Structures are given as C-alpha cells and as structure tokens.
Amino acid sequence: MEPEVVEQPQVLRLEPELPNGTEKVQVREVERRSKLNAEELSRIEDEDVLDKMLDQTTDFEERRLIRNAMRELRQRKRDQREKERDQRLQEARSQAMAGRAGHTTETTTTQSTQSADGSARSTVTKTERLVQSSDGTKTSRTTTMESSYVKRSDNGNSTFVQTKSSYSSSSKKTGSIFDREDESASRQSSLAALERRQVEKKKELMKAQSLPKTSTSQARKAMVEKLQKEGGSSPNPAASQTTVQRSSSFGVPNASSIKQMLLDWCRAKTRGYEHVDIQNFSSSWSDGMAFCALVHNFFPDAFDYSKLTPQNRRHNFEVAFSSAEKHADCPQLLDVEDMVRMREPDWKCVYTYIQEFYRCLVQKGLVKTKKS
C-alpha cells in the first residue's frame, strides 16, 4: 500500500497593497532615496558621479542636495588649485632669493686734483658694486660716479658743486663664450662713456671758475691807467688833491669790475661835495645831488651847486639832466618823473646814464683816455 500523502494547508502571505499598483522595485528605490543625505553626498569626490545622480533623480529635495554637493566639490577643487599655485610661487621666490644671495664685491676709487694756486679742488669718486649669484649664472654690476668741486675766493667765500650719477647692468650666462664676451665689451664701453662725460663736466666747471683770472686783463689795465690820469685834473678844488683808489674787486676782470671802476671814478669826482656819498648806483643817486655834483665838477658855471637841497629832488634831476645835455651833449636817458616816483632808482638805468655821460665827456676832450 502506498502511504497517503497528506497535503499541508498553504498559508497565504498577503502582500500589502500599494496604491496605483506600484511594484516592489519602486518600494526599494523609495527606501534608498530616503537614506540619501548631504553627508553622504559630501564624500563623493567625482563630479561625474554627482552629475549622473542628478540626471536619474526626479525628487526636488534630492536634486537640491546634489546641486549643493556639486557646488561644494567645485569650491574645494578651486581652493586646492589656489593653494598649490601659492606654494609654487613661494618656492619660486625662495629659489630666486637663494640665487641672488651670492657673492658681493664693492670697489671704491677716489681721484683728487688741485689747482696750481690751491684755491680750487676737484674730487671724483667711483664705486663699483658687483653681485654674483651662488651658481654663477647671474651677475649684476652697479657703478656710481660722484664728483665735487670746491673753490675758495679771495674774500673767504667758497663755492661747492656736487654731481652724482649711477649706472647699473645685469647679465645672465647664456649662449656661448663669444656672446658673453660681447656683453662684457658693450658694458665696458658704456662705463667708459660715462667716465668721459664726468671728466668733460669737470673740465668745463674748472674752466668756468678759472676764466676770470686770465681774460680781459688788458682792458682792466687800460681802465685803471685812464682813471689814475684823471685823478688830478678836477676843476673842483676840494677834489683836486684826491686820487682814484683801486677797489678790491679789480682783481676779477668782468662786468662787475668795470662797474666798480666807474663807481670809484664818480666817487673821486664828487668827493668834497656836500650831501653826496656815492656807495652804489641806486640809493646814492635817489635825491639827484650826486648827478648835480658830477655835472658841476666838469661844468662849474652851469648852475650854483650851493643853492641845491636834497629835499627838492625834482629840481635837482631837472638841473642835472638839462645841464648835462646842454654842455656835454648827453641825452636825457632818464625820465625826471620816473626818478621822482622811485625812492631807489634802478641801478641799471643809473649805470647806463653814467656810462653815456662819461662817453660824452671823452668826446668833448674833458676826460682823457689812453687812446686819446
């Protein structure tokens, strides 16, 4: 007999019903999505993975989290790149500083010259600074030229002139030895040109300072002799015994010395006249008395000097200018109104008028010169 097979009653496992007939796969996807959070997304270092996840999901919240994760990932990569770039720049600077911190050599030479009389002294100082990198690939050269000129005058004053110029060059050891020799030759020629310019400037300065000692000596000597001859020929008794004194400025033969000689001549011709004290070509002639005294010295019959007063300035100028024009044919280069208006006349105007008056006297034969 065959045993009977007793069938076990089957227990039905009821699956929970899902709305709209969704399948079990969708349930598992929902469970997986519910576990997705920002912490897990932050661990992903590949932007392509996040991009694929963004394409697969349709949930708004998940898409927002993925986008935030992508932005943070890009920012981290940017920060990392900037950090690496800063490190490379720092390393490059360190290497450059290490290359510059090489051997330094500085050479200073001083050359000094002095004039024959010892009144002028010129000094030229040349400083060369050579900096070579530790590896010998870079060389920097700086040349500084300083020149000074000191001149002492007879009255104790001194003139000081100083100039300074600098020239720098750098070279890198590249190419063949012939290229480096060409660079060295060009640098030496530039330095030689700089030295020549400094020497030329020094020569011009010394020539300008020493020029007054040697020029116009004959003209100065002739003017001194002329004034000395005129010293005893004055019609004024008070001034007849006087002689022209040579001023200390006659040692310098320039326009200043001629001006001083003419001033001494005026002082000699008006010495002894009341209210006259000629010290310059400006304030000493402001009241007109000096003009009147100078004209009266050569033309005593033109007017009565004793009746003139310093307070009547206009009258003094009119008498002096008109008398000089009448008796010496000297044109009235000065205007009476201008002289009255100015408390101190312009010395150039007075100096020019006195020169013209002197020339007219020479033409009249009242003043004798060496040529006459």
UniProtKB/TrEMBL annotation:
Residues 104-115, 158-176 have a biased composition (Low complexity). The keyword Coiled coil applies. Residues 72-91, 194-206 have a biased composition (Basic and acidic residues). PROSITE patterns: CH. Residues 116-147, 231-251 have a biased composition (Polar residues). InterPro entries: CH_dom, CH_dom_sf, F-actin_Monoox_Mical, SMTN. Keywords: Coiled coil, Phosphoprotein. It comes from the Eukaryota. Transmembrane segments: none annotated. Residues 256-362 form the Calponin-homology (CH) domain. Pfam families: CH (PF00307), Smoothelin (PF12510). Coiled coil: none annotated. Residues 1-29, 72-251 are annotated as: Disordered. Belongs to the smoothelin family. This is SMTN protein.
